[in-house]
């Protein structure tokens, strides 16, 4: 059962937008701190890889809501392609150009594979992590984008056709089995390299099940309790603890649990403090630029112009500031307008109202 369209359902999950922005910021800062600390295992935000699993869960939740009344596979496929591929293409090609410049000016180059046309095409066409064939990434964060694209297609194909409680049970079972299989938490390449895809699919299915289980009665029963606000803050703190310091072991899976209630922040009353925080302008700003920020920050890192060996903090601030500015400009003037235009054309093509 899907939550009916009424006052209980927000037209857009703005608090989740804000949460997504905070998670994208954590990934960016984790990578930048890693660069200036030599990727020390004691560095802050070493657990930001957990944020990527949270992205998958949110995608399952939001996409199930967005497509609950339209199960046309072609429409879903084209919308996901329009949303994810343009930025992925732009950032991949930008990384290649920066590496080409660096190679001519004694700068950092990850490897000669960067200029291999086969590797470039494999990166561009979302092939990483969805087959047993492995190849190097040009833009490291893009591994999750290709996996999310293909795994999200399971929503209209399979997930929404499964009764919500069974969907939750299946997702939980798969996640438990993956936990048992992996000794290194979320970072595992077993099943011939297909482990990340299986994990992403299970996380997306979990998010889909959580949304499908919502009813007005359940929402009212949960959100009208004063203790639920405190519970949400505890859940948020737990997730942030994991992002700050968790490091590749079976405890990774434990941090999935406190994230699930956070998807209900948008259903909180307007007086809710945690809702006000995530709807605040600074947090919403990061939500607005979250997708570009996630993929663009690697380019800011490899440019190297901001790196100051005498001041790691200044290096992070400069590279982070550059990433944020470019991400905003891209989101405001390219990403959002382009997606809206493509979405309109896709609706006309698929005869969708």
TrEMBL record:
Keyword annotations of the record: Membrane, Transmembrane, Transmembrane helix
Domain of life per record: Bacteria
Membrane spanning stretches: 21-40, 46-66, 73-101, 143-161, 168-187, 193-214, 226-247, 285-307, 313-339
Domain Acyltransferase: 14-330
A single MF term (Gene Ontology): acyltransferase activity, transferring groups other than amino-acyl groups
Keyword Oxidoreductase: no
Cited PANTHER family: ACETYLTRANSFERASE
Protein name per Swiss-Prot or TrEMBL: Acyltransferase 3 domain-containing protein
Organism: Acetobacter cerevisiae
